[in-house]
Design a protein that fits this description.
With 265 residues, this protein is of the alpha+beta class. It has a domain at 74-257: HIT family, subunit A (2-Layer Sandwich), CATH 3.30.428. Helices cover 24% and strands 21% of the residues. The chain has helices spanning 26-42, 57-67, 120-126, 128-135, 169-180, 208-212, 219-222, and strands at 9-11, 14-16, 76-79, 84-88, 96-100, 145-149, 162-166, 187-190, 193-200, 225-231, 237-243. The strands form two sheets. Strands 3-4-5-7-6-10-11-9-8 form a nine-stranded antiparallel β-sheet, sandwiched between helices. Strand 8 (187-190) and strand 9 form a beta hairpin. Helix 1 (26-42) packs antiparallel against helix 2. It is globular. The chain starts with 8 loop residues before the first strand and ends in a 22-residue tail after the last strand.
Length: 265
């Protein structure tokens, strides 16, 4: 559940989003900043659900920053050729988000199953260098980094976003134990939740989204999916597939495999 950083710089009594992009009139700039400020406020409650009616705040920021030619978020890095963006989460010193620049509601989006869709998980893994740089370490191994996307019931924002951060030590220990036992069990128990585990050589086609889905899935079934990715210490990955179980009080929150975030604001 993201909490993001936004800034509108005061210039001559008005607001400007970035001198590097075309600037609308003063009233347009002011109106945009007000809207973006509302989106920012909606994302300030770190680790908790966004206020009702503000589930599109993340989309407002990314659409304005990447698609509309403004630059309202200093820590937003847009890649139009790839079709996604990387954004620093204000909660957690090393926590980043990978967000599509196209409208994708979440893990249930049918577009994620198409072969011509961008490789969002691969791009998120490529953004781990920002996590490593933020840590100040030069000896980070791939099995210390993880990715996660929450189910519909475990997210606060209705724009797909993949969390990027260090993996919690309990997760690394559980995978290590699974390997020592011969990697025969099909699932792991993590934080009281069951995850199906698989080892893969790459995150490209089939993508984790495609691997999590089955032919007879409906959008209502896919929206319960939650996916985690952990590096294997080499060039491969462990995929963790879970499901929300509302009767069992499991929100489908694979973000739990990452180190907890702490807000500094």
């Amino acid at each position: 559940m993201p909490c993001l950083e936004v800034c509108c710089e005061p210039i001559r009594g008005s607001f400007a989003l970035s001198s590097a992009f075309p600037s609308p009139g003063a009233s347009g700039r002011l109106g945009a900043c007000i809207g973006l400020f509302v989106a920012f406020i909606a994302l300030q409650a770190c680790g908790s659900a966004a206020p009702a009616g503000h589930s599109n705040a993340l989309w407002v920021l990314v659409d304005a920053g990447c698609n509309q030619g403004w630059a309202p978020v200093p820590s937003l890095y847009c890649d139009r050729a790839r079709g996604d963006a990387v954004l620093k989460d204000i909660c957690g010193a090393t926590h980043y988000l990978l967000i599509p620049t196209a409208r994708r509601i979440g893990v249930e989006s049918a577009e994620l199953l198409r072969d011509d869709e961008p490789d969002y998980f691969e791009d998120a893994w490529g953004a781990r260098d920002r996590v490593i740089a933020a840590s100040g370490r030069s000896d980070v191994r791939s099995d210390e980094i993880g990715l996660a996307i929450n189910s519909r019931w475990g997210r606060s924002q209705d724009q797909l976003h993949i969390h990027i951060d260090f993996v919690g030590p309990q997760v690394r220990d559980a995978i290590g134990q699974w390997l020592r036992e011969g990697a025969m069990r099909p699932s792991l128990e993590l934080f009281g939740h069951t995850y199906r585990i698989a080892h893969v050589a790459a995150l490209q086609k089939p993508t984790p989204f495609q691997r999590a889905a089955v032919a007879e899935d409906t959008p209502q079934q896919r929206e319960t999916n939650t996916i985690g990715v952990v590096g294997d210490g080499g060039s491969g990955f462990y995929l963790l597939f879970g499901h929300a179980d509302l009767q069992g009080l499991d929100r489908g929150h694979a973000e739990e495999i990452l180190v907890p975030r702490h807000c500094t604001h």
